[in-house]
From TrEMBL:
Signal peptide residue numbers: none
Binding site for substrate: 54
Gene Ontology molecular function, alphabetical: hydrolase activity
Record keywords, A-Z: Hydrolase
Organism lineage string: Bacteria, Pseudomonadati, Pseudomonadota, Betaproteobacteria, Burkholderiales
Organism annotation: Diaphorobacter ruginosibacter
Domain of life: Bacteria
Name the record gives this protein: Histidine phosphatase family protein
Keyword Hydrolase: yes
SUPFAM superfamilies hit by this protein: Phosphoglycerate mutase-like
Length: 223
């Protein structure tokens, strides 16, 4: 039986003009995860990532830490939803930058509300697929892994939304649980599914074994 390791990207650039860019800390998180796996002799038979820049940069950091070449399958099915398109679908802008604790909380309150409406089919955010198509894309990647890699270790680098969707698909969770899971996925966190030809089974969710030391305690981030 193989294992699918789902990794959320390292810390990106929340609040900046271009969010889709790892911060210096995000790069450190990714490299440290690769180092952690290298120290334990981890090898991957297949690598899959989304097509966003933060996915590519995170995988580069992991492979740097692993000291291995990575030749990933790249698929937009693992890309994150558009947060601002969701928010603007329920509350048209302009929206002030989330540069204070209260504005940060307000941003995520609106986002959770918008996610629930998108998943319920009551809004269609501009430029985004339907929830059914978004979830179907994630489901397709999981099916590919199950069909082709039942006895392999597979590394998948994506974002919180697709990872929470994958967990929700495997566990058949309701929408509100999937949203709650999404909001809790930390940067560079690892979730694990065991892979058999018939099914995927959740083994761990949102773990940070590579940052489990006093030295790295300040490296734990969420955005």
């Amino acid at each position: 039986m193989g294992t699918l390791y789902l990794v959320r990207h390292g810390q990106a650039s929340f609040g900046a003009e271009n969010y889709d860019q790892l911060s210096a800390r995000g790069h450190e998180q990714a490299v440290r995860l690769g180092e952690y796996w290298r120290e334990r002799g981890m090898k991957f038979d297949a690598v899959i990532r989304g097509s966003l820049q933060r996915h590519a940069q995170t995988l580069e950091g992991i492979c740097e830490g692993l000291q291995m070449q990575c030749d990933p399958l790249v698929t937009p099915a693992l890309n994150e939803y558009e947060s601002m398109a969701l928010i603007e679908a329920i509350q048209p802008g302009p929206h002030p930058a989330a540069d204070t604790p209260e504005r940060y909380r307000q941003h995520f309150r609106l986002l959770c509300d918008a996610l629930a409406q998108w998943m319920g089919g009551t809004i269609t955010p501009r430029g985004m697929p339907s929830w059914s198509d978004f979830a179907g894309g994630v489901r397709g990647v999981l099916e590919l892994v199950r069909e082709r890699h039942a006895n392999h270790n597979v590394l998948l680098v994506s974002s919180g939304g697709p990872i929470a969707t994958a967990v929700g698909e495997v566990l058949s969770t309701p929408a509100e649980v999937m949203i709650a899971l999404n909001m809790r996925v930390r940067n560079s966190a690892v979730s694990e599914f065991s892979i058999s030809p018939k099914r995927l089974m959740l083994q761990t969710f949102n773990t940070l074994p590579h940052l489990d030391s006093e030295q790295h305690a300040s490296w734990v981030t969420h955005a």
